[in-house]
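User: Hey, my collaborator sent me this sequence without any context and asked if I could get a structure. I don't really work with proteins. Can you help?
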Amino acid sequence: MIKLIIAFILFVLGCAWVADWIIFATQKENEQLPWHDFRQKYIARFPEAVQPLVNNAVLITFVCILCFVVAGIIFINQKRRAYTVLAILAFVLAAWQLFSLM
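Assistant: No problem. I've predicted the 3D structure and written it out in structure-token form, which is a compact way to encode the shape of the chain:
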């Protein structure tokens, strides 16, 4: 049961990160910004203690991939159809994050 809770927390953390980025990037006032200004505005949204982590895109992407992969592995080991769907979704999101590194 504790593994399942950890899987849900990791999955939600990864999804929250991806959703936050998509929502921020698609706001009309942000679409017009040059990349440097856009990135600085995005980083400034976070507390100062977290900004160095957010500033390192490769590290935060690997953390996100790790969250999805660990959650997917835990979900796939649960022998229920709903967890299998969550595992597939987690692996697809991990692959999406991996693709974003390229």
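In plain terms: The chain has one domain: 2-101. You can pass these tokens on to your collaborator as they are.
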